[in-house]
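hiii, so i know i said id send this last week but things got crazy w the move. better late than never?? heres the sequnce for the chain we talked about at the cafe, plus the structure i predicted for it. fair warning i was half asleep when i ran it
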Amino acid sequence: MRVATAARQVVANSGPMARFGAHLVLFAAWLAVAATAAQAQQPPTLPPARIIVSGEGSVDAAPDAAEIMSGVTVQAKTAREATDASSKAMAAIGAALRGAGVAQNDIQTARFLVSPVYGPQAAQTPPKRVGFSASNQIRITVPQIGRVGEILDVLISAGASEADSVRFVHSNLPQLLDQARQAAVADAKRKAELYATAAGLALGGVAWISEQPLAPTPLVEASSFAAPRPAVPISPGEDTLHARITVGFTVAH
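okay and structure toks below
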């Protein structure tokens, strides 16, 4: 408004060209005021109508394969001695596994670590290194889940001192999860239709779907093996695989 007042003063006190320019300023100021008034009269833009629900689906299936983590840890005075002893023990374990029919590509080194070993620390003195430890672990894939107990026996007999875990897996996991996903979508649609009917709305189509992360495959913890023993009992049981999604539906007009 100050611009318009100044422009009117110029119109009154200036020549033809100055008055023409002042008229332009007045016109621009009027347009700005009119645009502001028009915007103030417009109702706020509302977000598109949505019905947002979560859906869950599951499928029960027995695992058909397994992964075993096993290995040895050896201590010696020097790192070289510890490494050599660990390598020798793992060579014997690998030979025993292959002799039991485990394919070479189903045996994979998972971890190899050499670290110093320190003795008890005396008061106000730094710990003294007394040797080295070499830890070598392998991951064995067992495609036939019925052989898990047998393979564990082979590991024990061959000198394995550690078994961190047995993990049961599904060779057809993608197909099983797809069944759970389909059930999750059906569950979400059922909920959305219920809400729409209760609210007197007409349910539209799916606007978006967001899938939540899946939980990791359960592990069966196994303790370290000290000596050979009778066949290791293994019960894979049955897993319940879940799918969780959030779905946004439009509302039909």
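btw The two ends are 45 Å apart (CA to CA). thought thatd interest u
miss u guys!!
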